[in-house]
Specification:
Strand content: 15-25%
Helix content: 40-55%
Strand order of the largest sheet: 1-4-5-11-10-9-6-8-7
Largest sheet: 9 strands, mixed
Distance between the termini: 65 Å
Radius of gyration: 29 Å
Length: about 500
């Protein structure tokens, strides 16, 4: 057994050394190093079977969430779901893994980030990379041609994680998509409005929603001299402009992807342009642009989109930006990305990148349909993990205590041997729909009970003692100001509800 492990460790070490000599990517090297460490740990476990030592850590690119973090997450999810439902979306769910062939060839250069799984009963599977491709498969499989759906679930990417910026290998996505044949830009602009509502409600700071058009990008590449077979790979390079400088992107296009320097410079002139409706007019005056059918059709649609943004009162948060590319292969029309204004600039320590993104993908469903029938779709994904990171940082900076429970009432016993009476009261309050707790100790100290109320932010305490039981009353204490009133037992529920309602109105 040990000999086999030693051979495996030697072979794995050779793989790591080879990757380093070939200057492979850090992500590839890190993955093989992790396998090597796992083998060594297995060997050590075998040598010390009588006293095993476990490495207690999260898998790379994942994290745990304690009660305070989960409280923030629940509030964010609530805002997102309310916005989705306000716009009439229905909820669906799909498996966390798909057939590998379902995901293959849908993400362009990002396909290398898909987590493959071993053969499972004759099926080659992979963890889902996003929620869009599974949605397209769902539509094709169920012959659905019209739906407005939202989906909140975890996805997995074998990416190089940056935990401080909300970039993980396991993370939630919150998607809303509108499928169906509708008039141009009507559903598209609603996606922008939804992003605006969510980011405004969460109060994460100033933001801009960048918009562009995939056909405009293709037309721009063509007039600049890019060959058609290089459109997607050059688009992937342009997509990095939110994290890299133009000089770095230009170097990648020229040195790694073989683009002519003059062609790259012409692209550089365009991708520096941004604005609103006036940019549409500027591009319509460009003789090269108006000579390209893709450019003219895309500009007409962008003009409609920007006018609709005015009707939805989001024009002040929208920027028509030619540097926006979004590298995924399945986009066919309008694309968008929301960025916090204070988070721009790749060298800023707290930059979390974009916080929402999406676009139109009219041909993805047809890739799964046996007859190639397309269902036009447009959607947006909220970068929920990045929003969590921002809000967590805000709470830490404010140094405010986060209330992690929804308990409304705590039952306090003033004397010994009242645990059964506390149980009776708790049952009565639970049956009335009031969130209630009491001590698990038979004879808790009264000061300790009051301290629990203050520590957990519980607004009301119901206090009972032998005197209260004899007189058929309970004492209600306002935990914040420590004021007490006596209430007849039969009026307790009504009085508590009134007080909780008043507290909610004044909070």
């Amino acid at each position: 057994m040990d000999d086999d492990l030693s051979k495996q460790i030697k072979n794995q070490g050779d793989i790591v050394r080879k990757l380093k000599s070939e200057k492979a990517t850090k992500a590839e090297i890190d993955e093989e190093v992790a396998k090597l460490l796992a083998l060594k740990a297995k060997l050590n476990d075998g040598e010390a079977a009588s006293s095993k030592h476990f490495v207690l850590k999260n898998p790379k690119g994942t994290r745990d969430y304690g009660p305070d973090k989960m409280t923030i997450r629940e509030k964010v999810f609530k805002v997102v779901i309310e916005a989705f439902k306000r716009h009439g979306a229905v909820n669906i769910d799909t498996p966390v893994f798909e057939l590998k062939e379902t995901l293959t060839g849908k993400y362009g250069e990002d396909s290398k980030l898909i987590y493959d799984l071993k053969d499972q009963g004759g099926e080659i599977l992979a963890l889902r990379y996003d929620l869009t491709v599974p949605f397209a498969r769902y539509l094709a499989m169920n012959k659905i041609t019209n739906i407005k759906r939202y989906h909140i679930a975890k996805v997995y990417r074998r990416d190089q994680p940056v935990m401080t910026k909300g970039r993980y290998r396991e993370f939630y996505q919150c998607d809303i998509d509108i499928a169906g044949q509708y008039d141009v830009m009507v559903p598209d602009v609603e996606c922008i409005r939804i992003v605006y509502e969510i980011l405004s409600k969460l109060e994460v700071g100033k933001f801009v929603i960048k918009v562009n058009h995939r056909r405009l990008l293709d037309g721009m590449f063509k007039v600049c001299g890019v060959r058609a077979d290089k459109f997607r790979t050059i688009c992937s390079s342009v997509d990095k402009l939110d994290k890299a400088t133009w000089e770095e992107v230009r170097k990648e296009m020229v040195e790694e992807k073989g683009l002519d320097e003059k062609t790259a410079d012409r692209i550089g002139e365009y991708v520096k342009m941004s604005g609103g409706l006036q940019l549409v007019d500027t591009l319509k005056a460009d003789l090269q642009m108006i000579g390209n059918k893709d450019c003219m059709k895309a500009l007409a649609e962008m003009e409609t989109l920007l006018k609709y943004c005015q009707l939805y009162k989001v024009q002040d948060w929208v920027s028509f930006d030619l540097s926006l590319a979004r590298g995924l292969d399945y986009y066919t029309g309008v694309i968008y990305e929301a960025v916090l204004k204070g988070a721009e600039g790749k060298d800023e320590e707290n930059n979390v990148g974009s916080v929402a993104g999406g676009g139109r993908y009219d041909e993805l469903v047809g890739m799964f349909d046996t007859k190639g029938k397309n269902v036009p779709c447009v959607g947006v994904s909220i970068g929920i993990e990045r929003l969590f990171t921002i809000l967590e940082q805000q709470h830490e900076a404010a140094d405010k205590k986060i209330r992690t429970t929804d308990t409304q009432v705590y039952i306090v016993s003033a004397h010994k041997d009242l645990v059964e009476e506390r149980m009776k009261l708790a049952t009565e309050l639970w049956e009335a729909g009031i969130s209630t707790e009491h001590s698990y100790k038979t004879n808790p100290k009264i000061l300790r009970q009051y301290q629990t109320c203050e520590d957990e932010g519980i607004p009301l305490a119901v206090v009972i003692g032998s005197s209260e039981l004899e007189r058929g009353v309970v004492k209600l204490r306002d935990v914040a100001d420590r004021s007490d009133i006596e209430v007849p037992r039969e009026n307790m529920i009504e009085e508590i509800r009134q007080r909780l309602s008043l507290m909610k109105q004044t909070s």
